[in-house]
Amino acid sequence: xxxxxxxxxxxxxxxxxxxxxxRPDLFRERLGGTGAGIELLHELCPTGADPLGPENPVIxxxxxxxxxxxxxxxxxxxxxxxxxxxxxxxxxxxxTAFALRLAGYGAVVIxxxxxxPVYLAVHGGKVQFRDARTLWGMASSVTVGRILRxxxxxxxxxxxxxxxxxxxxxxxxxxVIAETYRHFGRLGLGxxxxxxxxxxxxxxxxxxxxxxxxGRYQGLYRKLHERxxxxxxxxxxHNLGTAQNVAPLNEMGALPVKNLQATxxxxxxxxxxxxxxxxxxxxxxxCAGCPVACIxxxxxxxxxxxxxxxxxxxxxxxxxxxxxxxxxxxxxEDAPGVLKLIDAVGHVGLDAMTAGVVLAWATEAFAQxxxxxxxxxxxxxxxxxxxxxxxxxRRIADRTTDFYRxxxxxxxxxxxxxxxxxxxxxxxxxxxxxYHTGPGALLTYLSGARHSHLDSAGYALDQxxxxxxxxxxxxxxxRRLVAEEARRQVLSSLVVCxxxxxxxxxxxxxxxxxxxxxxxxxxxxxxxxxxxxxxKHAFKVREGxxxxxxxxxxxxxxxxxxxxxxxxxxLRRALGEMNRWLEGRYELEGQD
Amino acid sequence: xxxxxxVVDVERCVDCLLCAQACARRFGEGGCARxxxxxxxxxxxERGFVVVVCRACAVPPCLxxxxxxxxxxxPVGVKVRLERCIGCKACVAACAIGAVQWxxxxxxxxxxxxxxxxxxxxxxxxxxLEEVDGG
Lengths: 592, 135
Fold this sequence. Notes:
The structure holds 2 protein chains of 2 kinds. By secondary structure, chain A is an alpha+beta fold. Among the domains of chain A are: 7-204, Aldehyde ferredoxin oxidoreductase, N-terminal domain (Aldehyde Ferredoxin Oxidoreductase,  A, domain 1), CATH 3.60.9; 248-408, Aldehyde Ferredoxin Oxidoreductase Protein, subunit A, domain 2 (Orthogonal Bundle). Helices cover 42% and strands 15% of the residues of chain A. The longest helix of chain A has 21 residues, at 474-494. The relative contact order of chain A is 0.12. The model of chain A has no long low-confidence stretch (mean pLDDT 95). By secondary structure, chain B is an alpha+beta fold. In chain B, 17% of the residues lie in helices and 24% in strands. Chain B is built from 4 helices and 9 strands. The interface between A and B is large, with 43 and 30 residues.
């Protein structure tokens, strides 16, 4: 096995000390990524830990395939979430995985708390704590990136992770931003960094990665590369990006609109993938090691309000989820409007999805009179009013008043304080993703631990059922979701982007690992995926999660999905079946 | 006919780094320690990228800068005789476009041999091998 992979960089911010631990056991048993990370979290995060206490570790993990095979381009972050109070798992693209792996680490673990604001500079084997007092409080995370780009070495071989003002002020859904356009978006990693007085992490690496079977490696790489560039992946994600989902979801009535009061716009939304590509697409980017280049940047050209012939051109990265949350959920009618809101959350460093759902809740709560101008500071949120939403985003990030402080803890906290629980769209405290396709999607939101809809196959199974006009028994749906989710744990342990799930069946994974001197057959890999999924569930249970008691937002049941309103009893039966498997009370068919 | 690697359409670069990774695979390894081609942003990814690689100069400054004659003329570009190289980095300083990369572990320069492997893995036609005049 690659000896660089098994190196875990440990950083103690309290003592400003770093060291490397060799953990071959961990990577042999669990490959890396989510698999290795969840074991580290079990080991290092004390039961009942304060998510914002020095004892909560931040674990960033890559895997054996990172930077060696196509689309093995993601980094997994594991931590205890200050947003849900439970397992936090977030995945990020960009250059992070490439830089970490080439710096010679399989994982980085950061714990403790610095007495002064610092940022961490890791250049290969050199780890330094640098003064971040001047960077603290800057209006924009983009500026912080610009400064570090100039002051730190490693251009072309590095990642620059940083938090914005929302993180600095401990908004529980503050994001960590990578390379300006990618994010550890969900579950509040940004707030955890703030609790450690850690403004940014720069990692650069330019090392060599050893390969066990060189000839086979080169051949297999070529084969996978060719398969990737000829697959539908390229067409699907390269051309329009994930924004391609907006129009079809709208058409089938599965796009949550206006806090899920509706599930479609009357016509194609102004921010569909097609319309954005035609009117705004300015550049496409790829994560390091990925030929697909799904990252789409819109060029937003705006005139200066006072000075004629003076324009500002802003680049805004758009994906389905932010378009859903800051567009559809807020009833936004124009493309520049939603792009401006996506830009605004990026500057302050909020999770776009959560921010959109929070603003949608506030809009409905305001309309119902649960909150008024005294709470909002005179602002009147109403659907599609982008200027007001922009101002609210700034106030949430800056936590200006008690009301905005509560909004900075998500819709669960907001509804507990002001009412409106029936239209507070959260699942175990985590705000809803952008697919209202039916029971499969809802089940994965309820049971999932990961960042967004990528959690599992829920919406794909919903759409399959709709196409075929069939409805699975709840137990069967539960088993299929669990089986697919277990398989995805293998990918997130390697770490391969889920967009490449069609490329990496378990046989291919076996071949890839074989070239790296890690022999694993398909059965062992399947077992590993199941094991990782159960270990994640065990962490959740340890921290007080109970799948049997989780509440289901009324609005998600009342607002019909394309196949009709989802029945709570159906969901409860399916959740029961999932829980039984997660607790190890039965094995999936043919696998005992 | 000799061919030279050329950056033919840098606007299409998406920063996937498949070129740099392909270059490392020549040596049967992953990573970028011995990649002769590098990509960096022009100052923020939204502004696009610079792809830095040897242009196969007719009169190569790197060759002339080398004090121990470790760099020789090749059919296209130059060839580094690693056994002669003393690792002084004079070639690195001599290249005006920064195309002499440095292998930190080996302490030797890495200069593109114009094999075109990177171009084969570039998904967007940024790189291509083109005929060299009189080559």
